[in-house]
């Protein structure tokens, strides 16, 4: 099957949204916790969180114009802080339900049945049911002029890992031990199976398989 | 386990790289095909390709400073075109090997044993063994000032889907039919299993499970 630029243009809007959203490959599945200056909390599912750098530890995410997580963006701009929480297989339906257009005065935590968890290191709520939680400090926002999406970049200030068996000897995390899921397209969720872990590649050198061995 | 900002700072460099790269969740697995103005071809594995918008169909990717895919960035800037090719389970080792630091005059296609495929719609080579291939036209590049990474944004001009059974009735693609893999951390590859596909969420409405049914 070959889709030209014109074929893509000719798709009806919803078909094009599903199709184009499928093309980039598998996506991360995270819940973004935030509060506004009055303490009104918000929780939004986002599939656009991506690694941006390890030193400083930076994470980017894309917020679309007029999308539901705009409350999230407003909150982050007000407080400068937010949380990122991995979605695991046990909370997929609740996480997906946060994408409904709730009014600003509704906490998605309450609406979908997830538990907000606060600690002294971050003003924004974590998701208690998530097994990998991060606190972030906002570092920059910029508008992508091509389509008016917003690129939000934060620095990771704290990481909470529920199961230390996921922490491997070289710093690598075994996300399968945390039941972290992946997303494809707009709305499909996947569990994963480890295929292989491969050594640092060098020219003319055969790749080795690396162990995924926890410290504990 | 709690890692503070200082704990992260204190990790040795390689441990920190593995750890922070694991935090964003699952990542897409793609090969970027490009050529320079003299036709010297290049192929690079990239885990940072992400969906940016459906209309126009835009895809972003992050190129790190001094990283191997800098040849890719130079080529894209020269020609304005590149390809994105999904990595499937059959070509994981070859795809990973493209990350070795080959000299500019070496084609990674030849070095790792993948087959370049050219057609009239794109100056850059596709990966014949990939089951989902896209041609892109460069739309913008911008430097992320926080860490000097480069955000490269392209518009999808052509999509080639090998197996039409992956195309579902509403435009959604079943990536599992294409054996597309996901990446975690720097170097682990995963196959996936569909957990569920969920309907558009609305407040006070129960989610429905959607079918993943091919057109053919």
TrEMBL record, chains A, B:
Organism: Pseudoalteromonas caenipelagi
Statement: the UniProt record of this protein carries the keyword Flavoprotein: yes
Protein's UniProt keywords contain Iron-sulfur: no
Cofactor: FMN
Source taxon at top rank: Bacteria
Domain spans labelled Flavin reductase like: 29-172
Keywords: Flavoprotein, FMN
Pfam families: Flavin_Reduct
Gene Ontology molecular functions: FMN binding; oxidoreductase activity, acting on the CH-NH group of donors, NAD or NADP as acceptor
Record protein name field: Flavin reductase
Annotated family: Belongs to the flavoredoxin family.
Database matches in SUPFAM superfamilies: FMN-binding split barrel (SSF50475)
């Amino acid at each position: 099957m070959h889709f030209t630029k014109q074929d893509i243009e000719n798709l009806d809007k919803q078909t094009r949204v599903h199709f184009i959203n499928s093309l980039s490959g598998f996506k991360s599945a995270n819940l973004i916790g935030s509060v506004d200056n009055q303490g009104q909390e918000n929780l939004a599912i986002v599939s656009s969180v991506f690694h941006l750098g390890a030193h400083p530890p930076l994470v980017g995410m894309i917020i679309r114009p007029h999308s539901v997580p705009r409350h999230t963006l407003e909150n982050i701009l007000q407080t400068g802080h937010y949380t990122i929480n991995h979605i695991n297989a046990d909370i997929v339906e609740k996480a997906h339900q946060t994408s409904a257009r709730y009014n600003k005065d509704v906490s998605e935590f309450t609406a979908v049945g997830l538990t907000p968890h606060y600690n002294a290191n971050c003003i924004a709520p974590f998701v208690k049911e998530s097994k990998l939680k991060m606190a972030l400090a906002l570092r920059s926002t910029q508008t992508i002029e091509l389509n008016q999406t917003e690129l939000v970049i934060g620095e990771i200030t704290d990481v909470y890992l529920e199961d230390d068996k996921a922490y491997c000897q070289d710093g690598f995390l075994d996300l399968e031990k945390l039941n972290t899921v992946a997303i494809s397209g707009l709305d499909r969720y996947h569990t994963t199976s480890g295929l292989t872990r491969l050594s640092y590649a060098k020219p003319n050198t055969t790749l080795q398989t690396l162990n995924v061995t926890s410290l504990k």
